[in-house]
Every structure is written in structure tokens, then in C-alpha cells.
Amino acid sequence: MNLFRRKNVAHIQSEILTDHSLKRALGPANLTALGIGAIVGAGIFVLTGQAAAKYAGPAIVFSFVLAGLACTFAALCYAEFSAMIPVSGSAYTYGYATLGEFVAWIIGWDLILEYLFAASAVAVGWSGYVVSFLKDLGIVIPAAFTSAPYDHVTPADAGWNVWRLFTEGWVSTGAVLNVPAMVIVFLITILLVIGITESALFNNIIVAIKLAVILAFVAIGAAYINRENWDPFVPAALGEGQFGWGGVLRGAGVIFFAYIGFDAVSTAAQEARNAQRDMPIGILGSLAVCTVLYIAVALVLTGVVHYTKLNVPDPIAVAINSLGEGLKWLRPIIKIGAIAGLSSVILVMMLGQPRIFYAMSKDGLLPPVFSTVHGRFRTPWVATVLTGSVAVLVAGLFPIGLLGELVSIGTLLAFAIVCAGVFVLRFTDPQIKRPFRTPIFLVVCPLGVLSCGWLMYGLPADTWARLLIWMALGIVIYFSYGRRHSKLNQPARSPAVVADAK
């Protein structure tokens, strides 16, 4: 059986006209808000401070510029694909149409890692802000129920010793479970089962709130910047990937997952009213808005508080608390905005994951139960419940640093493959109608692959090891189930889906 047999793009486009199983309810404003809802969240409210404290110092600003540049190349490629093939599945479907089934499976399995762990990582950050906010109100949740039972510090001399990377470095925190993180994932899961329209409305409201809060923090915090906190702007290197320009690169790789919102937009393409026009608007518009916000917040945050004090789950809250009693009124507002903002990120991440399952199941690579659509709500409810159940456990058990790095490397891999797919399809199928075309694709696509690969190179060895093990597990599942049940390998059942391998 040909592992690189491709789905026929023309047939996918014709299927779009007849498949009404998912409700088409999203316009350009909804799609842009979904992107902002996913992008503005963990990066600003959680990872900016942690990456500054551990890797780049105030130069985390440069890390955001590097990550944003790599994202721009990838976003242009995503825009072309999402307008040309507006179906659920995002990079998985794009890979299926360009690079073949096996590569599509690798992307799909990678996206499962990306979205599932992203939702869990952001839920941990959400928990930190909720605990801080409730403490301000005099409500103290016992520490045993507000963090992961273990933290992980990679052994400095472990190298690529997989056994040591997985068995050593675990430190007991004394906690039992991160209960607030588990609760928010559970509630979001229920909302997503109820319907896409209700979920989008909730997200739009939350996005408006958090944008207002972030702009308030930037405007007010700018007046309290202490320039001494920026000296030196690029701290001297202390080791591989720790400060210096190597730390800037490491920081860009670590915070990269905060940019995956436009990827989440593409997973909702089959629920867009006019995908060919609106998907590029949602993808590129959300990326542009959020990159500017990230840079502004990073400058203010590291200017208000010395970067060494920001390795906490709620760095914006720490910054607000440092501004003095005169701005005490701002603290609850900022924290409510952070809580709301992180809620929308969890929502969008968990909206994307079931739709990846849905697309893979429709193609036969996963069991049919994953593409079961609720008769009343018209959502992939089984996949949503499964995703939520696993995310609840991961959010309760694992620390945010470990989750964030796993998501970043998965995101970078998916972006690199999408850029390669656009490049390949321009030569293999130049006649396909492209409502949006990636400009100067001969330059943009290779730069997208190279920039994502460069940021992946800057990530720690243990993150690479975990990705490779995850991929190995996925390959076993593919050859034991997906390959045998793939509809492309059953032409008698669906001949129109088959495309000759090239």
C-alpha cells in the first residue's frame, strides 16, 4: 500500500459543498476573535514572565520578534491552504492533500500533542491567576490543591539519555492535584459540546474584556517603568540556552506555542460561512494584532519588575502588585482580565483538538466514534468529551513549563510541514483554484521551514526526546490501525477520494 497516496484536492473542494454535518456559523469577526482568543493568553499572562526569568531577560522582546517572524511565514501558507481547502483538520488535511497519508498522520498525531497539551498548559496558568484573585478576596485554597504534585528539572548532564530524561529530575512539590485547572477544563468541555455558536459568542465577549485589560496594563504600567530593570537588556550568557543570544533563541522556541491561535482558526474552517474569503482575514488579522500586543506587554512587564522575579504562574499579577497601593484598584481588574483571557485560550485549543480527531476519523485513520456528531448540537461531541477528559488529568498532574515546551516543538513541526506543503503543491497541482496565494512563495515557504526548524533546534534535548517518543507511539498506532482502515486504501468504497501518488 502506498504510504504517500494523496487525497484529491478537487474532490475535497467538492465535498465541502455537500457536507453540512457541522454548523457553518462563523464570520470574519468570529474567526479573527478565535485567533486573538487563542494567541492572547498564555504568552502574555504566563509564559512572557517565565521565559524572561529563565532564558532571555528583557530581551524576551527579541524572542517574540523572532517567533512572530517565523509565524508570519507560516501564517501566509496557512492562509493559502485554509482558503483552498476549508475543511476541519487544519495542517493534517493540508498534508494529506500535498505530501501523502503517512505525512498527514504524522501531522495529525503532532497536532494532538499540540492542542491537548496547550489546553492543559494554559489551564495551569489560569489556576495561578484564580488562586491569586481569590486570595485578594480573602479566600485561600490550600496549596496542596493548586499545583502539580511534581515539577521537573532536566538533569544538566543527561544529554540524549532518554531513560535519565524521563526518570530523573522529578521534584515533589507536596501538592496533590491542581484542582482549579481541572475544573476550568471540565467546564469548557461542557460548553464546547453544547455548540459552536454559543462557544464563539462566549469567546467574543472574553476577547473584548481581555484586550481592554491588556491595553490598560500597557498604558498604566508604562508610567512605572524603571529603566534599570532593562540593564543589561540582553543578560550575559550563563550556559547553553540561558541568557545571551542563545537564550533569546531558546526563549523564542519556548514561547512559540503562544502563537498557535491562527492554526486553531484553520481547524474551524468547515464552520465558517465564507471560508475562502474569511479564513485569510482571521489568520493574518489575529497574528498582526497579537504580535504588537506581545511586544508591548513584554517591554512593560520587564520594565516594571526585574526579570529575575517573574518565574511564577502569574507574572502580570506580580507586576501589578509591585506598582504600589495607589493602583490597588487595578489589581482585581487585571486579574479578572487574565482569568477571562486564559479561559478563551483553553476554549479555542479544545475547540481545535476534537476537529482534528473528526477529520482523521472521517478519513478512516481513527475509529468512527471520533467523527460522531451530536444530533441536536451538531458538534463532534465524543471527540470533545475524550479530549476534555484527558486534558483534565494532564492539567491536574503536570507543571506548565514541561507542557509549554512540548506544545512549542509540536507547533513548530506542524508549521514547517505546512510551509513545505504549499511549496510542493504549487508544482504538483498548479491548476488548483487558490482564492488566496502566498506571496513570493519561492522565498516565503523555504524561510518558513528554515525559521521553524531553527527555533526547534533551540529547544532542549529532553523536549526533542519526548517528541520523538510521542511520534514513535503514533507510528505504531498508524500501522496497527490507521493504515488498514484508511479510506484511501479502500477505493471500492470511496474511489473519488483516491489521488495517484506523485
Q: How does the SSE layout of this entry go?
A:
Elements: E1 6-7, H1 9-18, H2 28-39, H3 42-56, H4 60-84, H5 91-98, H6 101-136, E2 150-152, H7 162-167, E3 170-172, H8 179-194, H9 196-221, H10 244-255, H11 261-267, H12 275-304, H13 315-321, H14 330-362, H15 381-397, H16 400-428, H17 441-457, H18 461-485, E4 498-499
Antiparallel strand pairs: 1-4, 2-3
Describe this structure in words.
Helix content is 66%, strand content 2%. With 502 residues, it is mainly alpha-helical. It has one domain: Amino acid/polyamine transporter I (Up-down Bundle).
What proportion strand? under 5%
The residue fraction in helices comes out at 55-70%
Structural class: mainly alpha
Q: What kind of sheet is the major sheet?
A: 2 strands, antiparallel
CATH topology: Amino acid/polyamine transporter I
User: What strand order characterises the main sheet?
Assistant: 1-4
Shape: globular
Q: What is the CATH superfamily classification?
A: Amino acid/polyamine transporter I
What attributes does this structure have?
18 helices, disordered C terminus, about 500 residues
Summarize the structure.
The chain has 18 helices and 4 strands.
